[in-house]
Amino acid sequence: MPGIKRKSTPGKDNQQTISRFFKPKSTDANNNGGGQNHEKTPKRQKKVPVIQILDDDIAPSQSPAKPSSLQKQNKLPHDEIKKENDGNVNQSLTQPTTHKITVSEKCLQKLARYSIDNTLSTNGSMTPYFTKTTSEESIETPSSMEQSNISKSQLNNSNLQKFAHSPSIVHKEMAQTSTQSNFDETVHRKIFDQNNNFSKLGTTEPPPPPSSNTKKKGKIVYTPLEKQVLELRKQSHGAMLFVECGYKYRFFGQDAEVASKELNICCHMDHNFMTASIPVHRLNVHLSRLVEKGYKVGVVNQTETAALKATGDNKNAPFTRQITNIYTKATFIDREEMNHDGGKANPSYILAINQSKKSCFNFIAVNPTTSEVVCEQFSTKSISDLSVALETIFSCLKPCELVLPKSSLDESVETFIARYVSNSIEGVRTERLIESPFTNVTKESLKRLDPEFNTQSLLSCACQLESYLSQFKLDGILKSSENFRKFRTINQSMVLDGITLRNLEIFENNTDGGVRGSLFSVLNHTYTPFGRRLLRRWIANPLLSKDEIQDRLIGITEMVENWESDYMKSLRRGLAGSIDLENGLTIISLKKASPSKFIKIVSELEKLRTLFFKYSEEISSKTKSKLLRELSTQIPQHLGTRLDASLNKLNRTEADRNNKNNVFKQPELDYPEVLKAKNEIKSIESKLEEYRRSRLPRALNKLSVEYKCVSGLEYLVEVKNNEVKSISSDWIKISATKQVTRFRPPFVDEHFKKLCRAREELSISSNEAWISFLDSFSYLHYEACKRAIEKVAIFDCLISLSIVAKQPGYCCPIIDDSDCIEIQDGRHPVIEGLLASGQQYVANDTKLNNEKKAMLISGPNMGGKSSYIKQIAIYCILAQIGSYIAASSARVGVLDGIYTRMGANDNIAHGKSTFLVEMEEASRILRNSTNKSLVILDELGRGTSTFDGVAIASAALKYFLDEVQPFTLFVSHYPSVFKEFENHDACVNHHMSFIEANDVGVVTDEESGVKKEKVDSIVFLYKLANGVAGKSYGLNVSRLAGISEDIIQNAARKSSQFQEKMSNLRSFKNAIKFAKTKERYLLNSHEH
């Protein structure tokens, strides 16, 4: 009878081990208090106790599943057998079904000599079985979802003899639930959680060793699998673990609870720990979901199969397992999809920060997706400069993981990092590590980037980063010096610091931090992920070389002119839908590419080579652009024809199936180990076939016999049940049905085990051969393919900017060495793109040159002043990346930097008020700007009193106009400042025009007779005009904001009073001035 394990008797088959634990039978509604519940039995029939068994694997209305083919094939031991699942693995656990079996009194008496023990199986549920025990030991029953709160002390105090004579008592005891948490379960959870010290989006420390395995009464007994998981936990670097068990991946302890919450799967108590599971084929799906949420995840795989285990020395031990991979958001590079950035603007950088001296900081950032390594080092004398440098690096790179030293950094750096992590929308992981003493980075590779680098300090930072990357087996990225570049090269790109990038909304808007509403969203029409990343770098680093800018502009112009030509259409189609070749080349160089991915990557490279080779002559003959001609010829040259040789070595059909055993067409040439393993398999198979033809027919008295393969079990000999007695007694029984029994003769069984071992050796040899093949390919082609992909990315960026240039109202700017910014009918490209259908942006002119290098702009609030000065800065950025401009004509001189002081922000974390932050930004601009810079000052001095603000604004403006002489855009609401500089030679006063509907005056309410002030009502024209605006019209904006009318009327009266006082004071001052002048005149006349 299923469910009972009897003593084995020689010559008899053993019965199946019980596979489910007991559950109390549900009581009738008529039973009071859930007392004893006896079933009625017919007369003259002995009462048979009924035991109700919980089956938590079988969904309602389903019969118990038969053993799977995988179970039969691998012959897993009882503590490793997996339950079948259709992909919805844990839903059946929420509604367990019950199955009744009857047990005789004799059987119950036999059970008195046994206690219920359980073992943690690999299928995600308990598999209890009976074991013999002494009289002092007590019954232990596992906790299911519905029994997780049963007090184990009640079960330990139960007597098995009572169970034999009065099963209803056991039912009653098992039905009792405790209101308090199970003490033993709490102890187990605490022990596991101490070993599971990972965190989401926070600092992760290596896990401590497990606590002492003691509990209140007795010792905790861990199953072999649980012990193995605890050991793996020590090696996991604080990661969640996917533990492979048969055809499922399981979570344990806190991992299971987190997985249940994040993946929406079931979690239940299983022996000592909470557990949850997913099917093997869903690993990549759930892995992606967890890393995208910011978790660090490890994958634990079985490193031996049932065939190797059966012939090894550890037949009775669990399968050996080890952590094969650890992933985070940035390091999960070998995904199923090859263009996994999904159009995101931000690449996945890991940034390591190190502080060598008090004011010297080192930064090394790695993008594992592309193997790009960015280095920077700077020293700062002030906290404000440090904050700006940090904001610049973080704004451009947008790191999603930070690697920090164990020791604390400077307080201002720690505060900045904490604010960056807390404000991040997508989440940022941070880890603190002790730097390793060794690194693959060399001083020569760093000196090549910048001779001024303090290489020893940077090497220390590289050690810190390499220690982190080694967890993910990505430290090889730092070996190639070709992957390194400097963050920003002086005298080669325009300076755009973090404050400017934020104020101008270059990469993200200031509303919700999204890409929409940023300059990048307007320019990004790239077809490829690697083109998208390069365009982002172009925008962050506008060119200073006039010749390079002209090359891009000429290339874009010719693309626009030939947009409908055959070669442009073909090239656009070829790039559309392209996979991430930078990422593909990286996973090949790191030897993580599967055969199918390798074929896909190299085939894509070969397609691009063929495409550009086909049209290289046509492009060279039809275009004048030096850049386009170079790209069309260099791309096929770098790729060459050598890629075909690598592809020709592979069997593409087997590669698409990821069958490494047969992926090579001629393994004997380069991989003799693979050929040797294949020959060994053929030899064994031929011996088995010879045995089938010659000896099996005689043994069975048949003319011919065929091997059978049933549920994955090979080399079976079927014998009809009525003929079983005629076969030899040493034949090994494998399985049976009502009609036939399946055996393996000793010879077949021995050679089948050899065959399994040979297949495993072939698998190992094939995997080693594949790794060797990838290594050889990387050595021969990595550098050339990398340069070719960089050229394709440039071509993709030019196509993207050509799409922008094709839009109506865009023009090609004239770039020269003259100091001028002259724009006619200019429009803000971002705001124009956000306007609703039917709305039109009001264009404005700009004229700045050597004679007039400053514009002083006044006007009403919300009149468009800030938008206007931002669009001028954006014109300059667009011009110097080689893009068309939203204007009818443009002429721009090359700028070395753009500096902005806009908005009002405080910094409470550093104890800085709004005005202090404002003054620090102004101080930075005063120190760094040159006569080739563009300086934007929006309402400087507004954070303090009027008199101090006017004085500071006036003094700063005078310094810029007389000393530094940059291009200056100065916005203010202080009329005295405009009056002071209205006759200055270097500046011109402008204002944003408007129409005033009503003049300020006094009216009488007809109903109440109360006098009310008229509040100005104006219409914004958003058009730049000469002269100074009379007022700021703040009350009009207050009304638009919904301020109460009573408050506005009171403010209007106060405003009229202030204006009257100021007018009287001005008249009085003028009278005094006139009197003094007249007195001086009379004195002079008297002297004469």
UniProtKB/TrEMBL annotation:
Keyword Secreted: no
Biased composition regions of type Polar residues, renumbered to the chain: 60-74, 87-97
A Pfam family matched in the record: MutS_III
GO biological process: mismatch repair; mitotic recombination
Iron recorded as keyword: no
Residue stretches making up the DNA mismatch repair proteins mutS family domain: 933-949
Residue segments, region Disordered: 1-97, 197-217
Transmembrane segments: none
Bias-annotated ranges (Basic and acidic residues): 76-86
Gene Ontology terms: cellular component: nucleus
Keywords per UniProt: ATP-binding, DNA damage, DNA repair, DNA-binding, Nucleotide-binding
An annotated Gene Ontology molecular function: ATP-dependent DNA damage sensor activity
Family assignment from sequence similarity: Belongs to the DNA mismatch repair MutS family. MSH3 subfamily.
Official protein name in the record: DNA mismatch repair protein MSH3
